C-alpha cells in the first residue's frame, strides 16, 4: 500500500455510504492521531485501539443524526498525496468551508487541526479536509 492515509479515509467514506455503525482500520500512530482529532471535533462517536498482532487495529464508531440518519462527516478529502505533497505556512492556513470544516495538518509539534496550528504559528503538511 503506497498511501495508508488515503486507505484510512476511503474505509471511513465507504462505511458511511453503507451506513455502518462501526469500521475497523489497521492502526498506525498517524492514524491514531487523526482518529483522536475526529473524536475531539465531534465527527465520530467513539474509538478504541485494539492491540492484536504486530500492528493492531482501530475500531471507530461512526456518528449519525437520529432523525435524518445522515452522517456527521459529509466529506473526507485527501489533500497531500505521495506524488504531490502539499505544505502550508501558518499565514496561508487553509480554511475549509469558511471555517465550518477542519483541515488536519501534520506539523513538527504533532498532528493537529488548522486552527490549532495557526494559534501556535506553525505550518506543516496538509493531510486532509473534513466537513
Structure notes:
By secondary structure, the chain is α+β, with helices and mostly antiparallel strands. It has helices at residues 4-17, 29-40, 114-120; strands spanning 22-26, 44-50, 57-62, 76-78, 87-88, 102-107, 110-113, 124-130. A hairpin with a 6-residue loop joins strand 2 and strand 3 (57-62).
Largest sheet: 5 strands, antiparallel
Secondary structure class reads: alpha+beta
What portion of the residues fall into strands of 2 or more residues? 25-35%
Beta-strand segment tally:
8
Tertiary shape: globular
Q: What portion of residues is helical?
A: 25-40%
Number of helices: 3
**Alpha-carbon Rg, integer:** 15 Å
SSE pattern, N- to C-terminal: HEHEEEEEEHE
User: What's the N-to-C terminus distance?
Assistant: 26 Å
Average pLDDT for all residues? 96
Low-confidence stretches: none
Amino acid at each position: 500500500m503506497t498511501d495508508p492515509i488515503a486507505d484510512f479515509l476511503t474505509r471511513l467514506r465507504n462505511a458511511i455510504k453503507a451506513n455502518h455503525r462501526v469500521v475497523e482500520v489497521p492502526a498506525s500512530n498517524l492514524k491514531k492521531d487523526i482518529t483522536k482529532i475526529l473524536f475531539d471535533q465531534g465527527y465520530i462517536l467513539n474509538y478504541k485501539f485494539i492491540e492484536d498482532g504486530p500492528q493492531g487495529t482501530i475500531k471507530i464508531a461512526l456518528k449519525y443524526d437520529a432523525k435524518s440518519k445522515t452522517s456527521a462527516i459529509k466529506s473526507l478529502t485527501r489533500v497531500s498525496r505521495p506524488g504531490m505533497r502539499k505544505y502550508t505556512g501558518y499565514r496561508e492556513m487553509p480554511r475549509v468551508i469558511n471555517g465550518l470544516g477542519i483541515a488536519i495538518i501534520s506539523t513538527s509539534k504533532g498532528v493537529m487541526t488548522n486552527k490549532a496550528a495557526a494559534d501556535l504559528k506553525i505550518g506543516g503538511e496538509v493531510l486532509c479536509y473534513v466537513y
